[in-house]
Amino acid sequence: MDRDMLGDLSTLLAVTEEGNFTRAGHRLGISQSAVSHTIRRLEDKIGVRLLNRSARKVTATDAGEQLLAALRPSFQQLGNRIEEIRTLGERPSGLVRVTSSAPATRDILWPVVSQLVRDYPDVRIEISSEGRLSDLAEDRFDCAIRLGEHLSPDMIAVPVGPQLEMAAVASPEYLARRGTPDHPDALEEHDCILMRHRSDGPVYDWEFEIDGEDVVKKLSGPFILNDPGHVLTAARAGHGFGYLPLPEVRADLDSGRLRRVLAEFCPRFDGYHLCYMGRRNLSSALRLLIERLKASQS
Amino acid sequence: MDRDMLGDLSTLLAVTEEGNFTRAGHRLGISQSAVSHTIRRLEDKIGVRLLNRSARKVTATDAGEQLLAALRPSFQQLGNRIEEIRTLGERPSGLVRVTSSAPATRDILWPVVSQLVRDYPDVRIEISSEGRLSDLAEDRFDCAIRLGEHLSPDMIAVPVGPQLEMAAVASPEYLARRGTPDHPDALEEHDCILMRHRSDGPVYDWEFEIDGEDVVKKLSGPFILNDPGHVLTAARAGHGFGYLPLPEVRADLDSGRLRRVLAEFCPRFDGYHLCYMGRRNLSSALRLLIERLKASQS
DNA sequence: CCCAACCATGAATTCAGTTCATGACCGCAA
DNA sequence: TTGCGGTCATGAACTGAATTCATGGTTGGG
C-alpha cells in the first residue's frame, strides 16, 4: 500500500458519502474532474473497479464496498486519535524560568503571563530580575526579556515590545555639584556610567539626535557595568549620568531620586526583545510563552 | 483530517519502523531531506511534536506513540483489505465446477453466483446436481454444497447457509399400504432409506427430539444410498421413508408426491456447507466464490 | 579531537495533481 | 421522440506542493 494511495482513499470515501463526483469535489475543495482522475488512478493502482458509475448515480462495487468497510472505521479511528493528541498537545505544562527587569516585567511580561497561566493551569512561570543573558546558555533560565537584539550567535531575540526612548539621568546631588548639561556635547565634561554585556564586548553607544542627525557620543566615566540595575544604583549614588530606556528609570524619576536631562535629543529605538537559546527542544510551555509574547506585539 | 495528511502518516510510520530518516527515505523512494520536510509539515499541521530527534536516533514522543498505536492496526487492515480485493480483483476468470443439490442450488448458490457472474464477466460457473464429494478429490468438481461438515481430512467445509430442519417423508402409496407412524419409535417397524457417503463409513443418523431429549434411531431398510437425489427417487417409488433436509424435499411435498411425518419431532441443525479441497492454489475464481458464499452467510 | 552519519532548512526544481475544455451518456419532461 | 440539464471521462495545459539540491549544524564513536 503506497503513500499516494492513502489520500486517494479518502477521496473514494467522500464520493460514496456524497453520492456523486461533483459534490465530493466541493467537499474536498477540488474539481469534479480531479475527483474523476483520482478515482481512476486509484482503481488502476489497485487493479480493481471500485465504483459503478452511471449517469446521475455512483455506487460502490462489491470490491469497493469491502474496501470502504475497512476504510470507514480506520479513518474514523485515525481522525479521532489525531484530534485527541492535538487537544492533549495543547496542554503545555511545566515551569518556564524568565529573567526580566522590573520595568520589562511590568510593561511587557506581566500582561501576557497573567492570562497565560489562567488559560493553561499546568504552566508555571518564574520571573527573576537577577538573571543574566549568560544564564540562558548555562540553562539557569529559559529566556530573558532584554533591550536590543541578541548578542550571542546561538541566541534568538524577537521583538516583544514597542519602540522605546532612552533617558539620560543623574541624581539631584550630582547635578547640583557638577551642573546640568543642555546639549549632548556637554556630556563629554561629565562622568558617565557605561554599559557593556561581555567583558570583551563593545561598550554600549549613547545615541542622540542633533538637528535631525544621529550622533554617537564617545563618553567615559568611573564605571562600566553589565546590569541596568547596577547602573541605577550608581546613578542614585551620584556617580554620574546613566543612559537607560525610559521605562527602566521611570520609578526613580517619579520619586525624585533621579532627574532626566537632554530629553529633546533622545531618539526612539527598538524596544524589548525576548531572548532564548535557539536549540531544538524548547518545551511546549516555553514555545507557548514565545508565541504569546510575539502575538502581544502585533 | 485532510487528505494530504494521510500519506504523511505513512511516512511517519516508515520512520519509526526504520529508526532513522535516511533509511525511511530509502524505503519510500525519496530523499532524507524530503522525509524531514514531510515530518515537519505533518507536525505543523497537527500542531504536536511527534518525533524526538537527536543525532543518530529518532524516537516517537508520547503523542507520536499514541498516534502510531492507532496508525499501525489501521494501515495493516487497509493494506490487507486492499490486497484481498486486489487478489480477488485480478480479474478472476475461468470455470468453477460446483456440485450441488437442486435445493442447495436454489436456496444457497443461485443468489450468489447470479451477481458474481455479472460482476466478473470472465468467470463461468458450472452447477451439477450429479456430482459426489469424491469427485472433489478426483478433480472432477472444484467444490460442493453439502449438508454437514467435511468428511475427509484434506477437505474443508465452511457453513454457507442457515440452520435447517430435517424431514421424514414417504409416498402416499407407502403410507396407505403400511400406515402412518405417529412417533419416532414407530419407524422401527418401517422401511427406511438410509444414507452414508463412504461405503466403509458410518450410516447417517436419524435424529429426533423426544420430550426435549435428542434421540438417535437405529433403523433399517432396503437401501443405503449416498445421494439425496437417489433417496428421493426411492422414496417416491414407495420404498420407504427418506430422511432429508426440508429444502431438499420441498418440491415433492408441494407436488404431493411425498408426505412429511413426525414434523414435531424433527430438530434443527447446521445447514449447508461449502466443501472444497484444502489445497493451496485455488483459482482466483474459486476463491472469489468461496468469499462470496461466506459473506452471504453473515 | 576528528570524522562519519544523521537531521534541518532555505532556495531551486520538477512533475504529479489539478484545472480547463469539451465530449459522451442518460434520465426526465414536454 | 427530442431536447435539456446534470453528471462522468479524458486529453492537454497549467501550477504549486512535494521533492531535490546544497550545505550547515549536531553528536557519538573511535
From TrEMBL, chains A, B:
<keyword id="KW-0238">DNA-binding</keyword>
<dbReference type="InterPro" id="IPR000847">
    <property type="entry name" value="LysR_HTH_N"/>
</dbReference>
<keyword id="KW-0804">Transcription</keyword>
<comment type="similarity">
    <text>Belongs to the LysR transcriptional regulatory family.</text>
</comment>
<keyword id="KW-0805">Transcription regulation</keyword>
<dbReference type="Pfam" id="PF00126">
    <property type="entry name" value="HTH_1"/>
</dbReference>
<dbReference type="InterPro" id="IPR005119">
    <property type="entry name" value="LysR_subst-bd"/>
</dbReference>
<protein>
    <submittedName>
        <fullName>LysR family transcriptional regulator</fullName>
    </submittedName>
</protein>
<feature type="domain" description="HTH lysR-type">
    <location>
        <begin position="1"/>
        <end position="61"/>
    </location>
</feature>
<dbReference type="Pfam" id="PF03466">
    <property type="entry name" value="LysR_substrate"/>
</dbReference>
<dbReference type="InterPro" id="IPR036390">
    <property type="entry name" value="WH_DNA-bd_sf"/>
</dbReference>
<dbReference type="InterPro" id="IPR036388">
    <property type="entry name" value="WH-like_DNA-bd_sf"/>
</dbReference>
<dbReference type="InterPro" id="IPR058163">
    <property type="entry name" value="LysR-type_TF_proteobact-type"/>
</dbReference>
